[in-house]
Amino acid sequence: MEMKMYRESADFLQKKLPFRAKIGIILGSGLGALADKIEEATIIPYSEIPHFAHSTAIGHKGNFICGKLANIPVIAMQGRFHYYEGYSMEQVTFPVRVMKLIGVETLFVSNAAGGINNNFRVGDLMIIRDHINNLPNPLIGPNKEEFGVRFPDMTRAYDRALIASAERIAQEENIEVKKGVYVGLTGPSYETPAEYRFYQLGGGDAIGMSTVPEVLVARHAGIRVFGMSVITNEGWHFEGDYTNDAQEVIDAANKASERMGKIFTRLIQEII
Ligand code: HPA
């Protein structure tokens, strides 16, 4: 992708938007319901935006929703692009750079994930405190100096102040939250019991097929990041006769939506 393409998309988007938003949100499985809470919404389908890919994953739509959440201007992605859909890593992360160009400074990300920590149960919320990347790195290739440096630091990929605030908010709201390491891999197959065990032994707490690419590109561009996972299935039952079902994953994510949305919304109010 050339710089010109990012700029053309950003210019197109900016002309359609009623106001500037410093906060970007990627509504993955688990945060879909937050879209309905956005007021004065302007909806821009990805299909209208130059150079954008189209979202095909089940449970995902394909729009930017720009509007106000608790009176704060936000730009939200309703649906994201996954590597397993066949997109290049540049396509997967394209919207993050476009958000950077239109002025986004903080990015909120969410996803559905399999719990690989023995203490995690379906329906739990997990604040992402770090990640392990098992997808191709989206920053491979000539470095785009306009966005960031060749070798970006990832020691604090997930903003510590935002994590601390989220923990406090969760406590105030009586919402139980876990905290842990998200393992990102390509999918689309779910993991075998041996793989779940492997990633658990490697330090993971939850495992999924998204988020890490967007976070890497956001951090490269100096965007602050906060992320949460909904635990939609339990991968830590290494033995036993369980199976993973995509519809059950989506149902579990939808159930957690309200709680996660509350934490996101209050965090957003505190940032401004
Ligand atoms: N593995 C990978 N991705 C997922 C899972 C899982 O168990 N659950 C939800 N997304």
Automatic annotation (TrEMBL):
Task: Kindly give the Gene3D superfamilies that the UniProt entry links to this protein.
Answer: Nucleoside phosphorylase domain (3.40.50.1580)
| The keyword Ribonucleoprotein belongs to this UniProt entry's keyword annotation | no
GO process annotations (BP): nucleoside metabolic process
Signal sequence coordinates? none
**Pathway assigned in UniProt:** Purine metabolism; purine nucleoside salvage
- What InterPro entries does this protein map onto? Nucleoside_phosphorylase_d (IPR000845), Nucleoside_phosphorylase_sf (IPR035994), Pur_Nuc_Pase_Ino/Guo-sp (IPR011270), Purine_phosphorylase (IPR011268), Purine_phosphorylase-2_CS (IPR018099)
- Top-level taxon of origin: Bacteria
Which CDD domains does this UniProt record tie to the protein? PNP-EcPNPII_like
Residues that coordinate or bind a purine D-ribonucleoside: E191, N233
Question: One Pfam family, short name please?
Answer: PNP_UDP_1
According to the UniProt entry, what is the EC number of this protein?
2.4.2.1
Q: Does the keyword Glycosyltransferase apply?
A: yes
The residues that the entry says bind phosphate are S29, H60, R80, F81, H82, A112, S210
What are the entry keywords? Glycosyltransferase, Phosphoprotein, Transferase
Q: Which GO terms describe its molecular function?
A: purine-nucleoside phosphorylase activity
Among the entry's GO cellular component annotations, what is one? cytoplasm
Which residues are in the Nucleoside phosphorylase domain? 22-268
Family, per the entry?
A: Belongs to the PNP/MTAP phosphorylase family.
Q: Kindly state the subunit structure of this protein.
A: Homotrimer.
Q: Its function?
A: The purine nucleoside phosphorylases catalyze the phosphorolytic breakdown of the N-glycosidic bond in the beta-(deoxy)ribonucleoside molecules, with the formation of the corresponding free purine bases and pentose-1-phosphate.
List, alphabetically, the PANTHER family matched.
Answer: METHYLTHIOADENOSINE/PURINE NUCLEOSIDE PHOSPHORYLASE (PTHR11904), PURINE NUCLEOSIDE PHOSPHORYLASE-RELATED (PTHR11904:SF9)
Q: What is this protein called?
A: Purine nucleoside phosphorylase
Organism, as annotated: Porphyromonas circumdentaria
Give the organism's phylogenetic lineage: Bacteria, Pseudomonadati, Bacteroidota, Bacteroidia, Bacteroidales
